[in-house]
Amino acid sequence: xxxxxxxILLVEDEPSLIETVRYALEREGFxxxxxxxxxxxxxxxxxxxxxxxxxxxxxxTVSGLDVCRxxxxxxxxxxxxxxAKDSEADKVAGLELGADxxxxxxxxxxxxxxxxxxxxxxSQMSPTEVEAGAVLSGGPVQMxxxxxxxxxxxxxxxxxxxxxxxxxxxxxxxxxxxxRELLIQRIWGDDYVGDTKTLDVHVKRVRQKIERDPHDPEHxxxxxxxxxxxxx
Length: 232
Prior knowledge:
Helices cover 40% and strands 21% of the residues. The protein is α/β, with parallel strands linked by helices and 232 residues long. A hairpin with a 2-residue loop joins strand 6 (135-138) and strand 7 (141-144). Helix 3 (64-72) packs parallel to helix 4 and helix 6 (161-171) packs across helix 7. 32% of the residues are buried.
């Protein structure tokens, strides 16, 4: 069971789904705060500083995509998007704005809880668990794991949690092929359910931050049909 102090902000405007998800999360030991539109979500986020946000993209007043963007301007808190079944473009847009993961309606509440647990485990790891003081480097990148800092070409660049974990994984295995399956298992966990789109979008975002030309990468390379590798 998760720590009872873990605080989830649930942003959803469908009453029946609110009650179902809130009940499931509270049963797992989470404290749950609910916002029913985008403006309320931003207000509650500022007031309560949650440990994780479950964010529906289809919201009144302020869109879920705008809420995601606004949160990412000030915080690296994990964000799990909730999207409609046919909103492929929204999934990609949300991931590119900094969301860490998504579930598609209709979804299994058990799957959502599992993903929330996995994201909270990673975001709440202690410095000793991530090798305190470790400094990794490769190509134009220097990473201080303990401080959660990344310097690219002499300038500090912000990396949300999943992008940071992904880049760290590559820097720890220079020159090695890392398959999509291995990367998904390491970054999203054994209980991840979904396709590789989430991984591919995160790789794209990392490239945009570390490559001179993200469309012709020199360091984070695709191994067609298999995965990726990082070369210095």
